[in-house]
Design a protein that fits this description.
- The chain is of the alpha/beta class.
- The protein has one domain: Beta-carbonic Anhydrase, Chain A, CATH 3.40.1050.10.
- It has eight helices and five strands; from the N terminus they run H-H-E-H-E-H-E-H-H-H-H-E-E.
- Helix 5 crosses helix 6, helix 6 packs across helix 7 and helix 7 packs across helix 8.
- The longest helix has 19 residues.
- The protein is globular, with a radius of gyration of 17 Å.
- Its EC number is 4.2.1.1.
- Keywords: Lyase, Metal-binding, Zinc.
- Belongs to the beta-class carbonic anhydrase family.
């Protein structure tokens, strides 16, 4: 069965519209579960053409293909707790944009995030967690401080700020991503997901033509 469109031909705005529409179906219990059959599986053996790359939190409640109602081969997904940036995640995003020509990067955070909560608690108590969880907290701490400067101290408000800070940080760290955005080859959508109603709210963007 032929694909409805060549995914590489999508613009960043078209890619975001596709995700937005899929999330609306998910919220309204009208999911179509596209591209999840054996025919789709076989069509992807020779290669992939995802139309979006998701850099999201590892939380089990944040399954990207489900909340955006897409299927196999539609999204290239990179996840770390608290969507914390490291060299591997940056490299994965650069691969998606430069090698797979993905037109949209989505930074996906969510309310009640445990990693962000841990960073706030450490900030308030002065006590850092043990092991490599400390590394997660240290990476999120600048977002906690940025939120505080705006008078934001609650977890969900800090999550939104962390999504925005992650967007800016990616562009600062990666000349590959910065160049792709400036050339209009890709864009970034910062999204905060609501666990209770399933809505994926756009909270920031770079290179998207949205109201």
């Amino acid at each position: 069965m032929p694909q409805e469109t060549t995914q590489h031909s999508m613009t960043p705005n078209e890619a975001w519209a596709k995700l937005r529409d899929g999330n609306l179906r998910f919220v309204n219990d009208e999911t179509e579960h596209p591209n999840q059959d054996s025919a789709r599986r076989q069509s992807l053996v020779a290669g992939q053409e995802p139309f979006a790359v998701i850099f999201g939190c590892s939380d089990s409640r944040l399954a990207a293909e489900i909340i955006f109602d897409v299927g196999l081969g539609d999204m290239f997904v990179v996840r770390t707790a608290g969507h914390v940036i490291d060299l591997a995640s940056i490299g994965s995003l650069e691969f998606a944009v430069d090698e797979l020509n993905v037109p949209l990067i989505v930074i996906l955070g969510h309310n009640s995030c445990g990693a962000v909560t841990g960073a706030i608690n450490s900030r308030n108590s002065g006590v850092m967690p043990k092991g490599f969880v400390r590394d997660l907290v240290e990476h999120i701490a600048p977002s906690v401080q940025a939120a505080e400067r705006q008078g934001i101290t609650d977890v969900n408000g800090t999550v939104v700020e962390h999504v925005k800070q992650t967007t800016d940080r990616l562009v600062e760290l990666s000349t590959v991503l910065s160049k792709a955005i400036s050339e209009g080859r890709t864009a970034v959508a910062g999204v905060a997901y609501h666990l209770d109603d399933g809505k994926a709210q756009l909270v920031s963007s770079l290179g998207l033509d949205v109201a």
